[in-house]
Structure formats: C-alpha cells, structure tokens
Design brief:
- Its EC number is 2.1.1.297.
- InterPro entries: HemK-like, MeTrfrase_put, N5-glutamine_MTase, SAM-dependent_MTases_sf, Small_mtfrase_dom.
- It catalyses: L-glutaminyl-[peptide chain release factor] + S-adenosyl-L-methionine = N(5)-methyl-L-glutaminyl-[peptide chain release factor] + S-adenosyl-L-homocysteine + H(+).
- GO terms for molecular function: peptide chain release factor N(5)-glutamine methyltransferase activity.
- It is an enzyme of class 2 (transferase).
- The chain is globular and about 65 Å long.
- It contains ten helices and nine strands.
- The chain starts with a helix and ends in a 13-residue tail after the last strand.
- By secondary structure, it is α/β, with parallel strands linked by helices.
- It folds into two domains: about 1-65, no CATH class; about 75-255, Rossmann fold.
- A seven-stranded mixed sheet has the order 5-4-3-6-7-9-8, with helices on both faces.
- The chain has helices spanning about 1-15, 20-30, 35-45, 50-55, 80-85, 105-110, 125-135, 175-180, 195-205, 220-230, and strands spanning about 55-60, 60-65, 95, 115-120, 140, 155-160, 205-215, 235-240, 245-255.
- About 35% of the residues lie in helices and about 20% in strands.
- S-adenosylmethionine (SAM) binds near residues 77, 122, 123, 162 and 185.
C-alpha cells in the first residue's frame, strides 16, 4: 500500500496532476487490485476526469454519480443550489433544467423537505445518469419541450446550469473537458448566452406567479445576462460567491404592468 501510494503519487505528478496526493488516495481506495489500480491510474494519466474514473463527484457534501460522457459537476455550481434553496418553500415545484448528472436537483432534494422536483436534459447519457441520482422524474428533450404539460404555469423555481462557454473559447478549455465532456454541455454559442436566451424567453409560460428563475454565468457575461432577463420582464439580481468563484443571475417574475391590458378587462 505504501509503495502503491508513493508510486501512484509520482506517476500522477509526472502527468501534471496538481492534486496528486489526494487523487492517489482516491484511486487506491477505488481500486480492487493492483492491476485495477494500474488501469485507473493509466486512465487518469491519459487525461480522463478523476470523477468519471471514480464514478462519482463530490457536490454540496454529497457523492453524485457521474457516468462517462456526462458533464462533471463543478463546485462553483453550489452557488445555484444555495440561492435556489433560499427561495424554495415546502411543496415548491422545482425544475433542474439542463440537469446533466442531476447534481443540482439531488442537492436540493437533500436540503429541502417536500419539494416536487423535476429535471430535464437533451442528452440521453445525462438523463440516464440523472435518474440514478434523483429518480424517475427526469425527462429527455430540448429545454421546455422535455417537460410534461402538467407543469405549465406551476413551476416555482426554475434552476439551470446551461452551457455558457463562448464557442471560440471551447478550444482553450482543459483537455479533460474538451475530450471527455460533450461539446453540447459546454458550448453556449457565439457569446456563450444562446441557451440562456432560449431559457429565459421560453420560461414565462412555465412559471407560477412569483416564481424564480436562476442560472449560472460568468463575471464577463453577467451584464449581458442581466439585460436578457430584464428584457423579458423579470427583475434580475446578481449572486456572487468569491469563495466558489461563482456568478449566477436570479430573477423573479414581475407582476403584470398596470399599463398592460389585463386578461380580465373587457
Ligand atoms: C454545463 S452542463 C450542466 C450540467 C449540470 N446541471 C451540472 O451543473 O452539473 C449543461 C447541460 O445542459 C445540457 N443541454 C445542452 N443543451 C441543452 C438543451 N437545448 N436542452 C436541454 N439540455 C441541454 C447538456 O447536455 C448538459 O448536460
């Protein structure tokens, strides 16, 4: 074991792993034999994300199942969970849109009593993985097309970690992400905000009165993200965590303007 540890740390360090000691411990714990350890270390040296090798990622203090080819939940996304949890009350209908592994939904389920959680993603691999983390109500399809019609007008919290890397910047991401995570989980179009735009423009008819919509973004994109939200009649607020280096936009549904005709008026 001691020899395994020292040589595993050395191999990982030579391959450029910054947290070689921590990773060595995790890989040794996960291995079932010396041959298995050699296989796991070789995967890591080839650049496969540690979480996909182990089959889990730590997120909000929980182990989230992560299957090969599924986006690895990032610590920074815990900000979305904190913000959504602060807004949700018992019985709230919560949708984790673009759910990937379902990390956000799983963390909310663990933290909140009695929420009615639903999740959706357009990638079958993500849907399969999310079902392992949060159960059956994970739907497959393009954004709102995936949701059952019964949720229309009833969603209290719509939380989404949409892809938001500008297309040109995907090539500059670490090889771990570029090679082992699907491009569709990363690429948010020319300015990174294409999916966020579609999310915001489609959200209204699904949200209940007083509902909240939250999505992650970057410091550089946040001003544009706020404009997108304000342009669709939501009241936006920026949430920021220096500790997690995370930025999110939190929006609430504004009441209809008095100068707009009411559906009840004759
Ligand atoms: C950045 S990952 C986030 C995954 C997860 N929410 C998390 O934080 O770990 C974005 C996810 O959005 C999904 N996605 C991309 N475009 C989508 C679309 N048009 N409709 C539904 N899901 C989409 C991808 O498959 C991917 O799982």
């Amino acid at each position: 074991m001691t020899a395994d540890y020292a040589s595993t740390v050395g191999t990982l360090r030579n391959a450029g792993c910054v947290f070689a000691e921590d990773e060595a411990r995790l890989l040794i714990d996960a291995a079932t034999s010396a041959e298995d350890l050699a296989r796991l270390v070789q995967k890591r040296v080839s650049g496969e994300p540690l979480e996909q090798i182990l089959g889990w990622a730590e997120f909000c203090g929980r182990r989230i199942v992560v299957e090969p080819g599924v986006f690895v939940p990032r610590r920074r996304t815990e900000l979305l969970v904190h913000e959504a949890a602060a807004l949700a009350s018992t019985g709230a209908v919560v949708v984790d849109m673009c759910c990937g592994s379902g990390a956000v939904g799983a963390a909310l389920l663990a933290r909140l009593n009695g929420i009615d959680l639903h999740a959706a993603d357009n990638d079958p691999a993500a849907v399969h993985c999310a079902r392992r983390n949060i159960g059956a109500r994970v739907y497959e399809g393009d954004l709102f097309d995936a949701l059952p019609a019964s949720l229309r007008g009833r969603v209290n919290i719509l939380v989404a970690n949409v892809p938001y890397v500008p297309s040109d910047a995907v090539a500059t991401m670490p090889p771990e992400a570029r090679t082992y995570e699907p491009r569709s989980a990363l690429d948010g179009g020319a300015d990174g905000l294409d999916i966020a735009r579609r999310l915001v423009s489609g959200a209204r008819e699904w949200l209940a009165p007083g509902a909240s919509l939250l999505f992650e973004t970057s410091k550089r994109q946040v001003a544009t993200a706020v404009d997108i939200i304000a342009g669709h009649g939501f009241a936006p607020r920026v949430a920021r965590s220096e500790e997690l280096d995370a930025t999110a936009v939190v929006a609430t549904v504004l009441a209809p303007r008095l100068d707009q005709p009411s559906r009840l008026s004759t």
